[in-house]
Every structure is written in C-alpha cells, then in structure tokens.
Amino acid sequence: MSETQTYPNPPVIELVLGAQFAPLDKFTAGHFGAIWDAVGRSEWVTPTDSPELEIQTETFGQAHWLPPSLQLKFSPIRGPGRLILANATGDQIVQIQRNRLHMNWRKGGTRYPSYKKLIAEFLALFDRVDHVAKGSGLGEIRLDQWEITYIDAFAHKEYWNTTADWPNVLPGLFGRLFATDGTGLELERRAAEWTFEIAPRLGRLHVAAHTGMLSDEASECLMLNMTARGPLKASEGREGLVAGLDIGHRAAVAAFERSASQEARARWGEPT
Length: 272
Prior knowledge:
Number of strands: 9
Order of helices and strands: EHEEEEHEHEEEHH
Number of domains: 2
Oligomer: single chain
Radius of gyration: 20 Å
Strand content: 25-35%
C-alpha cells in the first residue's frame, strides 16, 4: 500500500476509485439485484438507473491518426445500463455496469477519510461483485484498466480573488499571464488541461483546471480534476488492480503537492 503524506484539512471534495474489465456478455439488468444483495441493501439504500459510462482506454505505442474529415465514431452497443447505489448519508456511491465498477466518496459533513481507508472499502466491493459474477454464471472478471480521480476545490476569496491569481495557488501548473495594463483586457474566465505519462508507460495522469460551483455553496471555486488511469493484464487480477491504483494515487498526490504553493498548503494543516 502506498504511503503518502496526509493533511487534516485537504481541499479534496471527491475521490473516485474504478476498475474496468472485459464486458460480461451475459450480464442483464436482472443481475443488478444480486449485486445489490451482495454489497448490502442495508448500507446502500438509494438505487438510481443511469446510462452506461463509455469505455476509456489508455494505450501506448504507435498512434494511428486520421484527418478530422476521415475520423469515424461508432455508437456503443446498448447494454443493461448502470446501477448507482448511494449510502444513507449520501457521501458515498457505488456505480456498477457490465464492464465497470466505481466507488465515489464525496465531501459532505464528514472529512476526507484517507485513500487507505477508501481503497480497502472499494476492494471489498470488488470482491463481492466478483463473487456474484462467478456464482451467477457470468464468468471471471477480466480486468483491463485501473482508474483513480481526485477533485479538489479552492474557494474564491479564500484562495484567490480573480482568475489572474491562480498562479499564486497552483504555480506548478500556471505561469504568469502577459501584462494586461493599458490593453483594455481583463481576464474573465480561465481553463486548462494537461496530460502526463506515468513513466515508463504505466499509465497517464490527466489534469484539468477550471472554475466551478459547489452544489452546496454559492461561491465560485477553482476546480482541479486529476484522473490517473492505466492498463492491466487480465492475468494480473486483483493484485494488479491494487498496484495500479497505488501507482495512480502516488502520481496524483505528487503532482498535486508540487503544483500547489506553500501558502495554499499551509491551509491544509501539518502533514503526517
């Protein structure tokens, strides 16, 4: 298990842990009931139906590029959809479909419980879903990708006053803007994206920064999304999933800490 610094008051508002696997071809909507029973109906009390998430795969090697006019996009074959289960307090959800399992923690009235605690809960859920798949004749879950996402929110007026202040919060990502004095220009909105390879070809870290609103607050925030994902061989199984999530966790945390200013980190409390 990866050991990284933890802060008593980090700006993280959501963590998503995910596993993607080869589609279970015999999976039907009826299997959602068996999975719900397995993960615990008393704990996951609010079900919601939703469309399937599209497959997103990180590959390495020779890129096959087509001019825009020749690029083709095929609609995915419709499956039984996605089941979303929420716990009673609403700070955690589970997302299940024929080729994915995700668990989200969302900040509510509770503090961020730590990656170590949440990955243990996610793996327990994975084991229960895997048990249902084998017991229901769906076959073995053949993993092909791990994924972890952190979403952080830096509140307006607390961390920054205008979007031109973002380099003071995340100097590792934002450089200084050109001088706007006398130009009649005033920066109104700002957004940026970066993609990094987790060398050597272990995965990629996708970073996006933009303004956004928290659902329970009226003020703007600088939102920072960090998604790490990487390939898995089916033969690596559960151990490969753990190792992959650990790699993504380390990469995201390291990038986050190195991007933030000392003034921003001081607001999170002393690391342990």
